[in-house]
Amino acid sequence: MQVLKGISFELGEGEVKVVFGPSGSGKSTLLRCINMLNPPDKGEVYLRGENITDPEVNINAMRARIGMVFQHFNLFAHLKAIDNVSIGLRRVRGFPKEEAREKALEVLQTVKMEKWADHYPAELSGGQQQRVGIARALAMDPDVILFDEPTSALDPELIGEVLQVMLDLAKAGTTMIVVTHEMGFAKAVASEMIFLGDGVIIESGTPEHFFISPKSERVKKFLQQLDILYGSHEKLLK
Amino acid sequence: MILQDRPNPIGELLIVLEYWDHILSGFLLTMWLYGWALLMGFFLGLILANLRQYGGWFLSRIASGYIEFMRGTPLLAQLFFIYFLPSSLNIPVGNWKIETSFTILNKDITIILLNYRTLAGLLTLGLNSAAYQAEYFRGSIMSVGTEQLMAAQSIGMSRIAGIRHIVLPQALRRVIPAWSNEAAYLPKYTVVVYFIGVKDLFSQAHLTVTLTFISVTTYVLIAIIFLVTITLISKGLDIIHKKTMIPGL
Ligand SMILES: Nc1ncnc2c1ncn2[C@@H]1O[C@H](COP(=O)(O)OP(=O)(O)OP(=O)(O)O)[C@@H](O)[C@H]1O
Ligand SMILES: [Mg+2]
Questions:
Q1: Using an 8 Å Cβ cutoff, are A26 and A199 in contact?
Q2: How many A-B residue pairs are in contact by the CB < 8 A criterion?
Q3: Which of chain B's residues have a Cβ under 8 Å away from the Cβ of A72?
Q4: Contact residues, chain A, for B158 at CB < 8 Å
Q5: Does A104 contact B at CB distance below 8 Å?
Q6: Which side of chain B, N or C, has fewer Cβ within a 10 Å radius?
Q7: ipTM of the assembly?
Q8: pTM of structure
Q9: Average per-residue pLDDT in chain A?
Q10: Which ligand is closest to the CA of A27, given by its number?
């Protein structure tokens, strides 16, 4: 089955791209093509000029430069928060144990989770788990971080803390591709938004473009529905 | 006709227990077989489960075929197959042995740790147990889920590293309750080696019966020894399971 049908875009350093669209339109697939967890049958992905879809390229080394944050957190269940963050440093970057731990603690501080460093994922709330998930990606100092609906599995009262961390990252110049329906977040930091429908880009543009004068009827309808469903979240960002 | 006294189980038991050195050496040999078979089944089973889960089209078929074959044919048939295979191919098996002796309470006990028969029994039990253990491992690997491996790869770990450092540590913790079935009941299955003349607990019981003419009491004693052993193994694994549980889960 063909999920994505000819999608092309560029992402500059420090930019935040927000991807949204109906369920099944291929948003997750798009992200998984970008870091080759779902290698595309056709097409190419370039990271700082290097073709990562090239079979010759060391894909593990490439993935270490592309962070990913999952809808269901996917923290390593048998590892404490700190070890979730440090394992990549140790096993991939080859840091010695102590250095990896120090750096992991620093990163946990940026997501305000340092107090929970020695807790296991199952002992944390969803929002806390997702912040550790972000820290796990951040620890590798990636060139870009992919977020796949990072808040959609969270209880409403936990969404704010995760969005706040993401806002801080965006403002600090982190390059991000974010699949989300949090329009408040998009409005605040997106350099470009992409509306995906049935595996193609239906419309793209700035947040202003989408919120003031979207062209396609489909996008208008979709945004209206989001307003009904998610309208109140904008307040959380303030 | 001579009227006999009704058999007195306590008296019989005391007579049987005079042969405690036979029973002890049989028990030790049974445990020896069990330990190696379990260990061999563990590593081979782990390899089989990984091949079946991650081995790709060809290797996973091979692994499934092996597992289905071993679980679908009688253990005794597998034992005879392995035991008689060399001689049917005119390969000499030799008359070698490795044994150990010690003295307890003035009784000399000699145990043949390895000879051709024991080796055949050990291999069969290990190869057979591997198939059962593989299925338990595969179930627990599947229960860990593909998302964990995906997350491992997303931070740059190779597939192999992800399996080793992320999937297997969780799968091995999760597998303990199911795997206990195999670990606890394998001692029972070792009795098949009786049929190829290995002097395990069961054949020592048989020997004791021929020496004392007391059968029921002897076999009940053996049954109780198995029961106690299996119960202890189960309890031990239960403790390990509780100790290795992931907090919060
Ligand atoms: N591994 C897969 N194999 C086959 N089809 C898949 C696979 N993963 C997803 N699909 C299909 O691809 C399409 C796009 O799925 P995808 O998960 O990318 O959508 P999505 O936009 O992320 O949706 P959602 O909002 O529900 O997460 C769907 O029709 C889905 O059924
Ligand atoms: Mg999705």
A1: yes
A2: 78
A3: 147
A4: 60
A5: no
A6: N
A7: 0.91
A8: 0.88
A9: 91
A10: 1
Say whether residue A117 is in contact with chain B using an 8 A CB cutoff: no
Kindly tell me if the per-residue pLDDT of B3 is higher than 80. Answer: no
Q: Which chain A residues contact residue B170 at CB under 8 A?
A: 76-78
Contact between chains at B155 and A60 (C-beta distance less than 8 A)? no
Q: Which residue has the higher pLDDT, A200 or B15?
A: A200
Region A77-95: mean pLDDT is: 95
Do B148 and A74 lie within an 8 Å CB cutoff? yes
For residue A123, give the nearest of B147, B173, B247 by CB distance: B247
Q: A228 pLDDT band (50/70/90 cuts)?
A: low
Q: Residue B106: which residues within 8 A CB-CB, separation 6 or more?
A: none
Check residue A106 and give its pLDDT. 95
Window from A1-5, A10-14, A127-131 with minimum mean pLDDT: A1-5
DSSP state of A116: G
Indicate whether B1 pLDDT > 80. no
Q: Which residues contact A35 (CB under 8 A, 6 or more apart)?
A: A62, A63, A66, A68, A146, B154
A219 C-alpha to ligand 1 centroid (Å): 20
SS3 B39: helix
Q: Is B114 left (phi over 0), alpha (psi -120 to 50) or beta?
A: beta
- Confidence check: pLDDT of A28 > 50: yes
- Nearest by CB to residue B247, choosing from A92, A120, A136, is A120
| Ramachandran area for residue A13 (φ above 0: left; ψ -120 to 50: alpha; else beta) | beta
Residue B35 Cα, gap to closest chain A Cα (Å): 28
Segment B111-134 mean pLDDT: 94
Indicate the helix (H) or strand (E) that contains A148. strand A144-148
CA distance A21 to A177: 14
**Structure token pair of residue A105:** 């603690």
